[in-house]
Hints:
Chain A is of the alpha/beta class.
Amino acid sequence: MKTKALVLHKAGDLRVEEREVGEVGPDQVLLHVGAGGLCGSDIHYFWDGGIGAIRVSEPIILGHEAAGTVEAVGVNVRTVKPGDRVAIDPSRPCGTCRFCLEGMMNQCENMDFHGSAMRKPHSQGLFRNRIVVAERQCLPVGDKVSLAEAACMEPLSVALHAVNQAGSLMGRRVLVTGSGPIGALTVAAARYAGAQEIIATDIADAPLKTAIRMGATQTINSAKQPDRLATGFSAHKGWFDVAFECTGVGPVLPSLFPVVRPGGTIVQVGVMGETSIPVNALVGKEISLRGTHRANTEYALAAALIRDRRIDVTPILTATLPMEQAAKAFELVRDRNTQMKVQLSFTD
Amino acid sequence: MKTKALVLHKAGDLRVEEREVGEVGPDQVLLHVGAGGLCGSDIHYFWDGGIGAIRVSEPIILGHEAAGTVEAVGVNVRTVKPGDRVAIDPSRPCGTCRFCLEGMMNQCENMDFHGSAMRKPHSQGLFRNRIVVAERQCLPVGDKVSLAEAACMEPLSVALHAVNQAGSLMGRRVLVTGSGPIGALTVAAARYAGAQEIIATDIADAPLKTAIRMGATQTINSAKQPDRLATGFSAHKGWFDVAFECTGVGPVLPSLFPVVRPGGTIVQVGVMGETSIPVNALVGKEISLRGTHRANTEYALAAALIRDRRIDVTPILTATLPMEQAAKAFELVRDRNTQMKVQLSFTD
Amino acid sequence: MKTKALVLHKAGDLRVEEREVGEVGPDQVLLHVGAGGLCGSDIHYFWDGGIGAIRVSEPIILGHEAAGTVEAVGVNVRTVKPGDRVAIDPSRPCGTCRFCLEGMMNQCENMDFHGSAMRKPHSQGLFRNRIVVAERQCLPVGDKVSLAEAACMEPLSVALHAVNQAGSLMGRRVLVTGSGPIGALTVAAARYAGAQEIIATDIADAPLKTAIRMGATQTINSAKQPDRLATGFSAHKGWFDVAFECTGVGPVLPSLFPVVRPGGTIVQVGVMGETSIPVNALVGKEISLRGTHRANTEYALAAALIRDRRIDVTPILTATLPMEQAAKAFELVRDRNTQMKVQLSFTD
Amino acid sequence: MKTKALVLHKAGDLRVEEREVGEVGPDQVLLHVGAGGLCGSDIHYFWDGGIGAIRVSEPIILGHEAAGTVEAVGVNVRTVKPGDRVAIDPSRPCGTCRFCLEGMMNQCENMDFHGSAMRKPHSQGLFRNRIVVAERQCLPVGDKVSLAEAACMEPLSVALHAVNQAGSLMGRRVLVTGSGPIGALTVAAARYAGAQEIIATDIADAPLKTAIRMGATQTINSAKQPDRLATGFSAHKGWFDVAFECTGVGPVLPSLFPVVRPGGTIVQVGVMGETSIPVNALVGKEISLRGTHRANTEYALAAALIRDRRIDVTPILTATLPMEQAAKAFELVRDRNTQMKVQLSFTD
């Protein structure tokens, strides 16, 4: 059986090509993919041919945020059956390295993550009509939510993992800088985890409106009010217990040190290179700056929260285009005034 | 009663002056000071007239590392008596602000720390013959150790507090960058806390020899072997569970990210201003970078460890000069090839 | 000024008496009390003349769950003004003992907790028309919720404190045994803190219905289905990450060990005396059994959650009687088939 | 090749029998066993035919504490070579169950632990001349220490794991009840982890003398001074930060609640059945009672500490008998006035 796949050859050169689907092994599942979301790494691969030191050096099928419907299952499969709708866990840790055995699967030394150019040969992605995956990658999402919502499972799990870096958020005052898809989902995850106050920032008004719908209690447009954070939240050594830095923009990180309380935590979610931080404030206030990378144990929780709509992701879904118009989708997603999560649909 | 005090008027202008000792209140103790150590802030005040934004703007008696002998006690005092030898806790938190009531006394909003120019009027320091302090500032050190050792209580408590930022060190692989007094004491504190392996670095050989005597299992002269750390300890995403950065030198901090394991911790002990760090490594490896500031609950432990010589601080004691030769002491302490902790003695 | 107060002289002997209200000091607030809830200790005092070793040995005004309206404020008071509606924090720690300075105010050695017979003279309670309290005891609840709801602040803070003993509950499987007022509020607190699954038990159906309204995902009537827990949740060494034991009934605690997972936590909320536990299971599965006592830092959060109705406590409010019918209220509250929280109202 | 093995057929029926050694696979190592220690489970198997619900129902080679010398290695083996002396890690987790993948190998659902009758067929033990084990079970101990010391690796790892249940012990006040081999090693582990004060108890004087040699700062003979603990350490709600209960004797556990501080931890190390505890004290003082089971990640650390004699285990080694006199060894070990750890030697 053949499938249509969205293959990136080099920056800007994205083609719909045929690929062999392959056999369904005894512990495997054949899926018809219904929806796939464009993520930051897809966007960097498409526009820049890579991200930092990671370069697209051979054809790669993009995509690691997707959901679909089960078409066939291997003989050993017990947890899903044909017709079931599932979110796809794109993470395939080896299960035998030091980090896997310590329970840090996201740090797996041999990680095979769908749609990632981090290793060579590249790990092929999920933007295709049909795919064979392992049973354990299939997380049922029931019949109440759309596959578009289900395809938000992976970025939601990233947000939940970020929240897990900060200990219990119950009753905490939280700042989220950057209200794009990951920022908005982090707002929702912090809300779900019991944060009492969640202030979201962005340089555009549209994502701030979405942040409110996702659970923010207040927003700041830092383009319009560049001093608002510093003037409003620095008293008594800083207002926030925890800040989640989701912009990945260099000057934002240092701006958080005055507004985070002594002993507080900054979780760095956005990726960026060398960045300057005020070490004297980190030391004097005993702040913890902590990185977060993808998700680890949070995939199943993310799927369940979407399935039961305990977290409603629909506010971030702004556009869906057929896979044949993928290049247009990559254009569209750059317009932060109208777009949050842009998705592709896949039909035969 | 009068005392001789060592008063800094401005950078380089240090004078022995007379001061009134004052009455001994009911909960207070009159001490004859026996030994006082020069610390980094004293040295910056003397040579630079301040440190960062903190400036010496009025005459200040220097010193916050000292020990002495009890000469008289107030009527309510129960825990010490004349003749007792004590280390002086220089920390005077208010006990009523938000941070004090959360148990973070070192973050006290009204901290009155002996010998600090952080607030105005400056907090007067301990470099004087006699001083009246509160009973709770007097930590008995018994009769087995010298007052010179006892005067190391404060920097040892700083090292213990740094160790407390890293959770349990039992069985951990630890890196300490910078083997000056604080680095060497951090080596000792990490050893005391059960670290299995402690690698110490410096750019001079003399402090590295001291680090070995304080408990380091291996040393690296990073001036002679600038690549040793990166080449020897980067495999499998990094060797060290915890790194203590004690140099306060900008380029050292970023060099730690390749050698600290995923999920590991960097405790920043040295103070410095804006410093560039590789955020992508912090994020990708989920490293925690955490500041540590002075000490909080560790003073009594530090005094007990010195009293019982469970931590022997004598290897760091390199020179003692009478207070009248303080300027010479501030010269001497800059010679890292021969000096670690330089102390002053105080006699009538 | 006089107030009417509900004074317990000995078991069953409850009288409405007049008391002097007293002056309003500079940091104090005069409140008109609007609603007060009967709690377990009130009930034990009334029926048994004490609880365990704590005995009512002199007249005591009952009550530590109450809310009211500000009538007058002292000259220094800034955070409330006449007309404001507030929940009353009944906890008055000394602020100077070892535990207060470690941030464990609920362990204060000199605690003066309204309506408690724990110390002598007893701490007088809140069941009276008017009372003068400290400004910091007044937690504003806004105008949207009733004083009856506001009077649930204290038991909700107890539930939040119990949840805080268990670390982050995000995504966790939670068991709550006993669905009386504290159990039901613990369900709500666990839900608020992001628990994914919350199974509540009781021996009566009525409280189980309330538990569902408070956020339980499933309930078990353990009188009707005594084996349901053991048969349904013991596989693979136990289903639950965390159990909250709210019955205070001896045989319930040991029944939790088979259904809590290895490394899991049992938080004991209910009070009882000597109780037998299966130590071999505690050891073999490395379970943590942890006590929780009143609340510490959670009062302000509880007030805010009720104020904003992020936690809706109305399902537990089953009856209100005027203070003159208090004895009848103490009868009524024993009927677990119809009653959860029984409150008193106070009018001039 | 044949080996002599010590096979228990039923309580009291211990025989030296011949067994086939088997081939050395590519990742395996042939060891000549030099020393093996009698542990509590061996003793219970020998005298009682089991322990609690675990029964010896078929012939089982005893022993899970042993050390030996490498005689041959498989083709893939890199970390040891013939002639190397090693401690044997008796733990063989499956590496694929839920608990293994969470990093809790000691909770493995399919654990194959040498010398354990927990599963059927029983896991055969280490009391034999020669054995083939996996490379990863071989922990080198160098040439400075005896094989008798090396054979203490397993019980030391149990003590280290117990210490790991209590968080950082740096500067803590620690109580260890029961100074048999595990208690004495727990004293040493707590000392190694930086405990400031370690008080050990027992009902016999001999083990208390050993406890002092292992690092206890004070001892109490609770047979001679039954009230000493309660009268000396209950003030201000309890003296100890952490208690390790190593007796496994019912009435000892409840006696710890008055002497452990609010918020403190009791780690239950000894195994016993149903035991009564004062739940009101657990609740009122918010104590954590926590079980500990075998060891998890601590085997390598234990081997290294013995190798470098950072923990000297020789004080607990009281007698060695040849395997042919095993029955006599099982007699001897019951004499707590003269014996701590009794070991067997194995010669061709």
